Amino acid sequence: MAANKATATKDSIPPLAIVISLVLALGIAGFVFLERASRQPPPAPPPLTPEAKAYVKNLRLANVDMKAQESFLKQSVVEITGEISNAGDRALRTVELYCVFYDVAGQVVARERVPIVNTQMGGLSPGETKGFRMPFDALPTSWNNVMPQLVIAGITFQ
Hints:
By secondary structure, the protein is of the alpha+beta class. Helices cover about 25% and strands about 40% of the residues. It folds into two domains: about 1-40; about 50-155, Immunoglobulin-like (Sandwich), CATH 2.60.40.10. The protein contains three helices and six strands; from the N terminus they run αααββββββ.
C-alpha cells in the first residue's frame, strides 16, 4: 500500500501548475481575441436619411477659411473655420461634415468625418448661426494644400 501512495503522488500534477496553466491559456486566448477585434475597422457611420437629405438645402456654410499653424510639437496643424446657419424650421442636435482632401492629380488622399454642431454646443436652432472649427494634424504630405471639399455627412434632428 505504501508503494501505491508513493507512485500516485509522483504521477499527479500539482494543483498550482494546473492553475498557472489555466491562467496562461485564458490570457493567451484573451489576447488573441482582443488583437483580432482591434484589427476590424470601425463600423461605417450611417448615411444621410431621406429626411436629412431633404433638409440639407436649409443649411448654409459661410466665411469658411483655412490656415496652417505649427503645434507645440512642431507639427503642421491645418485648421478650417467657418459658420453654419440653419435656415430651416427644425432644431438640429448634430451636424457632421465630410472633409475630402485631394492630391495634385485630383485623387482622394484623405476623407474625415467631423462634427461641427453637437449637443455640447447646444445644437442649432432654426434661424441660428454658429461658428465651427475643424483642426487636422495628420494629413498626408501628398495633399495639394487646397481647401478640401466639404459635404454634409450627417444630421440628427432634436
